[in-house]
Amino acid sequence: MKILLLNGTIVGTKTQTLLNEIDKYIEKLNKNYKTKFINLENYQMEFVDGRPFEQYNEDMQHLIEEMEQADAYVIATPIFQGSIPGTLKNLFDAVSPLAMRHKPVSIVANGGTLQHHLVIENQLKPILNYFRCLVTPNYVYTHTNHFSTQGELIDEDVHNRLKEMTQVFHQYIQMSKEI
């Protein structure tokens, strides 16, 4: 079971901190799960414009292949200007809608205002529903105040919600094996 831990931004550290915590919880649930981190900041992305797969650069081809070969996903995103980052949307535009079908997805996000959690409901979930992913109902939204000035996750409630989300994600993985 290959689980992709996708950091959908090219700036900041909070989403990576969340993914690091989730990786620990996943490892405790099942040692057979293989997690892989994808940090979009480490890739030279190109704008998706409809050209054939082989005409994109190696980094884009690698990202598309990683997305399409994964069995499950945890997507971490910041919320910028009331929206997901363009880099994350660009990656979704590159992936075949069939590639993510019936695959489990959990979402974690971070924003500067408490109201930005609505971006998950109004933008990210509809994209994942278009792909017909098995989206866990309990995403985790964090705010800047949940982190120390050094970027460490310091809120115990967030830790508990991440653990719970990971447990539900595990159940969705089990369910996806039956489809």
Automatic annotation (TrEMBL):
Q: Which InterPro entries match?
A: Flavoprotein-like_sf, FMN_Rdtase-like_dom, NAD(P)H-dep_FMN_reductase
Q: Which residues form a coiled coil?
A: 26-73
| Annotated NADPH-dependent FMN reductase-like domain residues | 1-143
Which key words are in the record? Answer: Coiled coil, Flavoprotein, FMN, Oxidoreductase
Q: Is the S-adenosyl-L-methionine keyword given for this protein?
A: no
UniProt cross-references to SUPFAM superfamilies, sorted A to Z:
Flavoproteins
Would I find Flavoprotein among this entry's keywords? yes
Q: Which GO terms describe its molecular function?
A: oxidoreductase activity
Q: Which enzyme type, at the first EC level?
A: oxidoreductase
**EC?**
1.-.-.-
Q: Which PANTHER family match?
A: FMN REDUCTASE (NADPH) (PTHR43408:SF2)
Under which name does UniProt file this protein? NADPH-dependent FMN reductase
Classification lineage:
Bacteria, Bacillati, Bacillota, Bacilli, Bacillales
